[in-house]
Amino acid sequence: MEVFIPKRVRDSIVSHALSEYPREACGLLAGEKVRSKGFSIKRAYRAKNISDTPLRYEIDPEDMYRAFLEAEKESMEIVGAYHSHPLGKAFPSKIDEEKAHPSFLYVIISVPRVRIGAFIWREGKGFRELRVRIGEGPFI
Ligand SMILES: [Zn+2]
Questions:
Q1: Which pLDDT value is given to residue 64?
Q2: Residue list, CB under 5 A from ion ligand 1
Q3: d(Cα 52, Cα 105) in Å, to the nearest integer?
Q4: Is residue 116 domain-resident?
Q5: For each of the chain's 140 residues, which pLDDT tens digit applies?
Q6: How far away, in angstroms, is 32 Cα from ligand 1 center?
Q7: What is the spatial distance between Cα 2 and Cα 22, in angstroms, rounded to a whole number?
Q8: Cα 91 to middle of ligand 1, angstroms
Q9: Looking at residue 55, what is its pLDDT?
Q10: Rg (CA), the chain
Q11: In the chain, at which residue ranges do the beta strands (DSSP E only) sit?
Q12: Tell me, what CATH number does 95's domain have?
C-alpha cells in the first residue's frame, strides 16, 4: 500500500511542522482511500495543537470540525491526520499507538531533519507502514 501526497500538500505540512518546532504541529488530511491500494491525499488542513504537554499533540476539536465541513463541501473525505515529531523519528510512538483509530492514515513528519512516514493502524496487528510517494495520486 502507498500514499500519494502532492508536492503542494507536502510543502504545506512540512512548513507547518518546521514553524511549530520545537512543538508538535498537527492537522487533518483529506483525499481518497482505495481499499488495498492506499491513499491519495488532496488537501491538508492545519489545526491548533491544544496539548499542554510538550511533545504531544491534541487536535483542536473546532479545527477538526471545520476541516470535516470544508472537506465535505469539496466532496472529499477526511482520511487521516498528520503531526510532527520534533527531534523524533518519522515513526509512530507508543502514545500514537494508544490513540490510533483503525484504517485511519497517520502521516508523521520528523523535524528539523525532515522525513515523512505514513502508517495505518490495524486492530490487533499494529501499525503498517505505507510507501510515501510525492505527487498526485493515480486514483480518481
Ligand atoms: Zn507522534
A1: 96
A2: 93, 96
A3: 24
A4: yes
A5: 999 999 999 999 999 999 999 999 999 999 999 888 999 999 999 999 999 988 899 999 999 999 999 999 999 999 999 999 998 999 999 999 998 999 899 999 999 999 999 999 988 899 999 999 999 988 75
A6: 23
A7: 29
A8: 7
A9: 86
A10: 14
A11: 2-5, 26-34, 38-47, 77-86, 105-111, 115-122, 126-134
A12: 3.40.140.10
Residue 139 domain flag: no
Domain count, the chain: 1
How many Å apart are CA 103 and CA 112, to the nearest integer? Answer: 28
Query: From ligand 1's centre to the CA of 54, what distance in Å?
Result: 12
Which one-letter amino acid corresponds to residue 39? F
The contacts of residue 121 (CB under 8 Å, 6+ apart) are 97, 100, 101, 102, 103, 104, 106, 127, 128
Cα(99) to centroid of ligand 1, in Å?
A: 10
* Domain that residue 130 falls in: 2-134
Looking at the domain assignment, is residue 36 inside a domain?
Answer: yes
Q: Name the grid cell of 42.
A: 488532496
Q: Residue 85 carries which side chain, given as an amino acid letter?
A: H
Residues in contact with 113: Cβ distance below 8 Å, sequence separation at least 6, in sequence order: none
